[in-house]
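Researcher: First entry.
Model:
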Amino acid sequence: MDKRLRGFLIYAFILLLVIGIIVVLFMYVHDFFSIDLYNRIISVFIAVFITVMVLLTAATAVIFIAFRTRKVHPVMIFPVRLGMKLVIPFALFVAGALKKDKDMIRSLFIDINNLFVEAGDIRKEPDKIMLLLPHCLQNSECSRKITGDAANCINCGRCTIGAVREMAKEKGVKLRVVTGGTAARKAIADEKPEIVLSVACERDLAIGISDVSNIPVIGVLNKRPNGPCVNTTVDIGVLRDKLDSMIRSPEEEAEYGGCSEAAGR
């Protein structure tokens, strides 16, 4: 049997099994539960829904405050996480259902994520930082293959890859040019950075940030003067500022090294 069909049948069976169990439970409830027990169950559901509403209201308010003040205080971390996990996905669902622009919500998600990440300890050694670029930054007429090795770029000036490569070399950070989300996840798994600075469009960045939940990711949106996925560009100044805020200075490195040796003793 085809592997895909077998997988589909397995998932369909699991779904039917879950529905069947729910039906049996409701039949049991209908036959044996009293009105008083029904009322108690309803009360529990009401309490749960009220709690969820309070948490979501707090999460929405905290996201609003974080966005307006450009700060995420430690006490705001849990509500911000909750809002990013629940409120924003729901907002994307509603925007899709209403045929509205999802990129506005994704852009907000990226912005809040950056605030959240930058509120923590993001200063790392250069070799622990990865700079991820989408291949659409490369000029579409260029014949050089840079997705395997960005060093193949000859810095002809027709796109921003050369300038970013020189900056990454100057700063000492890892640079990878990837073709999509799967390649980006593989690059992160292979290199094992402690933090990632990623350039992409709203959709790819939002998905990537959600997928790579165990490593902090700071996102920078690309610019698309020729439309999506072809001859895009990025603000080099913004990238440089982000990298400068992430790279640990020699003084900090000396202090960090001293603290590590003291902790080891």
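Researcher: Second entry.
Model:
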Amino acid sequence: MNILITICARGGSKGVPGKNIALINSLPLIVYTINSASKFANSLSKDHNAKIALSTDDELIKKIAADYGLKTDYLRQSELATDSMGKIAVIKDLMEYHEAIEKSSFDIILDLDVTSPLRTLEDLTKAYHHFNSTPNALNSFSVSPANRNPYFNMIESKDGLYAHKSKNLKGDIYTRQSAPKVYDLNASFYFYRRDFYSQNYSTVFTPRTIFHVLDHICFDIDHPLDLEVLDFLISNNKLNFEI
């Protein structure tokens, strides 16, 4: 089983500049994901061949990753490093680059997001086994139970004036507990079969997508305050799990 573990870290983030290498408890943020990738690769059985690969357009990120053991000759093309470019195309380009070098294809691709590092080895192992035991699944991603529910307390305006619940069912729902369960994509990790890329999907949603629910805090860094929260949690040992 050939597995490619991808770590994608663009240098030009506008929402949180420099977030991929921001210091969290004295370590660049990307290091937590490099460590996750290494732990997972080392935990696999001998019939697995795991390759960890970096995609970045930024020489400083490339150097810092190399300082922590992840070296690469690959440099992301500028057209794959824009704000509007989806990650699937980025991963595919990196995958094809390494398949050309290895002269063989990968069976499974695991993408680990740098800006959502609150994952454990147990999370990855359980999700991988679930994915592997569901052979018809094309891909899988991590989610967290959502704090808001479109069947109960999320609204939209369809006419520009009056409020409507985002989703409706037959019969009213009066409590959050009675609403259908919904989940947030926490962006921490994604598993793909090689065939996912052969079918040219442009989003992670397919008719054969499954998901893995994390039972602990996990969030993606979208705001400078998120970096401060993450630094506080890790620096003060406030997590009840090991990343």
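Model: Note on the second entry: The mean pLDDT is 94.
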